Amino acid sequence: MRYTLIEGWLRGHPKDGYELVVAHSHAHGDHVAGDGQFRDRPRTRVVGYSAEEIASFFGIANWPQGRARVDLGGRVLEAVPTPGHHPSAVAIYDEATGILLTGDTVYPGRRYVQDFPAFQVSLSGMGPAGSSSR
Ligand SMILES: [Zn+2]
Predict the structure, then answer these.
(1) Residues 103, 31: contact at Cβ < 8 Å?
(2) Ligand 1 mean position to 74 CA, how many Å?
């Protein structure tokens, strides 16, 4: 029953060489608990949980002020550090749709903030590149 969803999708979209990246919005247990199922999957990288490991993976030079563009092959995403809820929180901005994926940094309801000053800075800089005061 391991990675059943992925294997099912690959049956409908056969191609050699599919790679998989398992990256998280942050490292709270409810986000990373399933990682073990991917650790021995071929052509799969499970990104580490620390801010340093996330910055290294995305190529963010100056955490948390920096950003990085991630080209998935014709689809460019932007990784935006958003510490506050968690020290290694990162949001993903999809230029194609204008959607900002924020993990637990922004959602309706009660939020838990570990570092409120960092959280305030993160929220002030979550717009498209060039629109923030960072
Ligand atoms: Zn969380």
Answers:
(1) yes
(2) 30
Ligand 1 center–CA 132 separation, angstroms: 24
Domain range summary for the chain, segments of one domain joined by +: 4-124
| CA 21 – ligand 1 centroid, Å | 20
The model's pTM = 0.84
Q: Tell me which CATH code domain 4-124 carries.
A: 3.60.15.10
- Compute, in angstroms, the gap from residue 10 CA to the centroid of ligand 1: 30
CA nearest 44: which of 78, 13, 10? 10
- For residue 86, the 8-state DSSP code is S
pLDDT tens digits, 66-86: 999 999 888 999 999 999 999
